User: What shape does this take?
Amino acid sequence: MTRIVLWMLVAFLTVAVYASEQIPAEHDLSADQIAEKNVAARGGLDAWRKVQTMAWVGHVNSAKDPAQDLPFVLALKRPNKTRFEITVLNQKALRVFDGREGWKVNPSGMGGGNPRPYTMDESKSARDEQVIDGPLIDHEAKGVSITLDGIDKVDGHDAYRLAAKLPSGVIRHVWIDAQTFLDVKYDREARGPHGPVTVEVSYGNYRNVDGLQIPFTIESGAAASGMRDKLTIDKVALNPPLDDVIFAKPASLGRRNSVSVDASASPPVPRAMTRPSP
Assistant: This one.
């Protein structure tokens, strides 16, 4: 009897340990319930609604560029204004969108540092972006409908695959980790030199910034290529003062090199939030 009890105990502990490592997803959750859990995991709807501007300061490592740790500043303002400035070999490259139109400045490319308008595809993509908080937070107010497409493995973990239909009719997929309910991946269609390509964006290294969970590592690249660009955020500022002028059509780089975005008000970076290892 003692041996039987011992083997039962060993079997029970084995199952318990396995269960603790392989927590199954809740397969009966609806898309709306998953979105609600995602909003709660990221800090709550009220907290995100209070964020009207955001600034990131960090560096980029590109698989296509031999230069590494390229410094960047990203400024975001509701509803969909963006300004991305990156320094390459002591020169500034710039992409700006004012909510309706976009411009780009590349001192090493065509135009000699003068602003060029976004292409039609670039403008359409920029208008579809849900800046600051993404498509799931407050999705009904944004006119975004969501459905549950299934459950996939992402980095060894179960993740809900949600299809988000944007007001323009474009559908993008968002993967939500079944344990943490944080965003781990999304995809979008982009036009490549030989036709449409699927771009995958992965999120990791979540950290708490004033009660909000924000990914400090973002990797992106064409799904078929396997090459990834890595964006590392060093500092985040919530609600910094951002004048609309920085999102207006830029002057040539020869006349105005950059716009300073103050991210010094962000809190100290706390310990990263990570998922259990697979």
